Amino acid sequence: MSTPNENGRVFREAWIAGVLKHFPGEPKPGYVTPWDQTPDWEREAATAVYGQVADFIRVSDGNTGKLTREQKGRFVALCWIAQIHKHIPDPKPSYVADWDDLPEWQRQTDADIFERIELES
Hints:
Elements (H helix, E strand, L loop, with lengths): L3 H19 L17 H20 L9 H19 L16 H17 L1
């Protein structure tokens, strides 16, 4: 069984892989910061969202494979928004943007994260 720290790392690695795959052009350095250099709050958030997705997969008896990529990505995005509110008292609007306001690269990355967690679960 993996530890929470390892789960957060998997989340972060999936984020970085998605950014490198989907981001148009050169991503901001903060988007691809390695796990060990990621701020504590962001590591906590990544670990929490990994856990929420893994729990969702578990309580769905593995039927999340029937969800669309958009549905998977929306779930990750919503869980992340809750973590932003938990850790940042007055976040910038772009940090808590709803799905329809996210750039396409971020939507695809969020869906990739969900699918990576499905593989791990």
